[in-house]
Model the fold of this input.
Amino acid sequence: MCIAKNRMVKIHYTLKDSDGVLIDSSSGLAPFEYLHGNGNLIPGLEAELEGKNPGDAFTVTVLPKDGYGEYDPKLHIEVPRDQFDNGSPLEVGMKFQAQTAGGPMTVTIQNITDNTVTVDGNHELAGKTLVFDIKVVDVREATDEELMPEMSGCGRSCNGGCGGCSGGCG
Done:
């Protein structure tokens, strides 16, 4: 059975950047499982998986426009520090969910001053060319339960590697 919309797919993957630096891998873990054709992976990877069969192994290079997008300096936002006054200490590099007009967004603290906090709303893989080594492990029809919208997310995150779940494996 080949990979097509509304089929459950299991893959093993290794994700590297264009310089060959390892970003993430399912090696030593259970295969990554997702519902195909429902936006659970980044578009460039999902398109390359379409039509593949169990046992297929291949390498996919995904450009930023088909992955997490180009890096956008406009997503560096300075916020009044008092908006972070929840008693927890702030540190550069901390990640958290912020509510925006477009919905929740993961942001990373870039700079902290006495009065402001600068956050970056870019995905950590934005602007990067991604190289995936993929092995298709299994493909099957999805159950009715798996096709329900609240159940169609990914089974586990892979560090934003594959891009599912707003940064899971797809």
